[in-house]
Amino acid sequence: MTGWRTGLGALLAMVLSNQAASAADPRYPDWPCQQAKVPEISLAAVWAGPPLGDAETKWKDDPKVNALAIKLAARRVPLEEAQKEITEFLSAAAADKANAGKLLFAGLFDTLNGQRASVMNGLERVMRKQREAAEKIRDDTLKLQALQDATPPDQAKVDELGNQLVWETRIFEDRGRVVKFVCEVPTAIDQRLFALGRTIQQELD
Predict the structure, then answer these.
(1) What is the pLDDT of residue 26?
(2) What's the predicted TM-score (pTM) here?
(3) How many C-beta atoms surround the C-beta of residue 121 within 10 A?
């Protein structure tokens, strides 16, 4: 019985500490990452090339640019391979290189910004689920303590709720580990966009 109580106390402390560690920025109460939330990538932070002008909207009208931007935005494509494809694409553009470069960067900017927003929205949805899960674990922990305090305790109910708590806690912890991993993705997207943008700028210089 003492062991159970120690375990329940540790469990409750773990859940509460996870909640307390979240939402460091009051502007974004559902943001679960230690990294500060930056809702959108600033164009100026990743592009020092010529003004994009109407390329910001017209890139979607060019089938080649559209397909290449979507392909190179995919993180499964190694960065070096993506940079090589950019060089080959712009070399083939010849006299229209400047316009092709602006269109391609505009496509990458839109596509990667969209991916980034999707990841961040997903993280916040998971955070809301974690908050609900933490409340459920806390409530079930208190119920289990009450069952154990009963005289005599209903051992079948104690075991059933105890097993349920083990499962709930495992899901909570697994989800927390996934969140820590996914929290790195927006930064990885920022870095990829900056690197690809720099490659395009170098080709246009």
Answers:
(1) 82
(2) 0.81
(3) 11
